[in-house]
Amino acid sequence: MNAQLYSTLILARICLEKAFSCFLKLYKHGGITMPINLVIRNKRKELELTQEQIANYLGVSAPAVNKWEKGTSYPDISLLPPLARTLKIDLNTLLCFEESLTTHEIAQFSTQIIKNMEKNGYESGFHMANEKVKEYPNSGELIETMATILEGALFMYGAEIEHKEFYEEQILSFYERAAKCDDEKARNKAHYMLISKYIKKKEYEKAQQTLDLLPERSALDKKQLQAMLLQEQNQLVEAANILEQKLLRGINELQITIFSLVDVELKIGDDEKVEKLSNAFKEMISQFELWDYNAYVIPLQIAQKRKDVDESITILKSMLKTLMKPWTPKNSSLYNHMNYGESPSEEELHMKLDRFRTRMLSTLLSNLESSPDLEFLHSNKEFINLLKEYWDKCNKTERETRNMIK
């Protein structure tokens, strides 16, 4: 497994975590739109006005306003402009004609795309995302989220997708559009993703120009300060939740850094340093109770560099075995306070993890079969049988998952 493949796996994990986060949020909230009756009621309450006051301002009865807020009747079209002015909003807001979507609306739509892909395939989900982007062309958060969701799904479904290059170019264009939006958070995320893509395409000047647009990391850590504030207020579980998420993000970043450094040192030829980094990496995986799969990535890289057939196959056996047991923070006592909102049922969670495992296994097997870096293994009978064994497991799990859905 080379550095590019490992980076792609990390990227896919980020994308899928985002998709899974969207799924979990829907168990905590409901609905994606705010009808006009709710707009009237909520804005009136925000301004601390009574129904009688609204009625007096507009020259209608209080029961009429009450019916508007219940949704049993609607204001006359001639009343809409003065009603909007009374509520101190514009007509677009009153009538729910927004140029953008809320974060929750985007989360719900993302989940719909994932379900669509599972049922109808990647092309259908892509079309659905593309149509939504056309509907809200100025929503930077939507465009960046769609690019991320589609990127993760493209990786997981890659082995069975035709015209993959077309989708890659479309996703790239989404990121480039998001990189020009007014939403700073979405813009920075898009810049981050674009840098990796430009490097992969060997467009180094573009990569550097995009890198220069990213802000330097602030020494003022808002999350750390929020945790301190919660701790002082004795809200310890909430503080632990923030700190555990911060810890896990930091460890994931450290993993990528160590792996990249190992890749560099292998090219330099400093075997002693590579060995030290490999041991430190493996110890970190163990101490921080992370996914065992990651512990085998660097040893495989070393064995691959040496073209050691026996060692490579031994490592691959362990990697594939651990891949059959997807890891989540819930598996570890170190991250037991992490909160994603109300969780789905055990059955639904199990089904989603099975799908994730099957997709990731399928993608990894395809890469192992086609990677030029592993060409020295491709004619080895034990390697061929190993892949066949896990393709059979992959297909069996896929059939069982389909039957559960039915």
TrEMBL record:
SMART domains: HTH_XRE (SM00530). It comes from the Bacteria. Gene3D superfamilies: lambda repressor-like DNA-binding domains. It comes from Lachnotalea glycerini. Keywords: DNA-binding. Signal peptide: none annotated. The keyword Oxidoreductase does not apply. Residues 40-94 form the HTH cro/C1-type domain. One of its GO terms (molecular function) is DNA binding. This is XRE family transcriptional regulator.
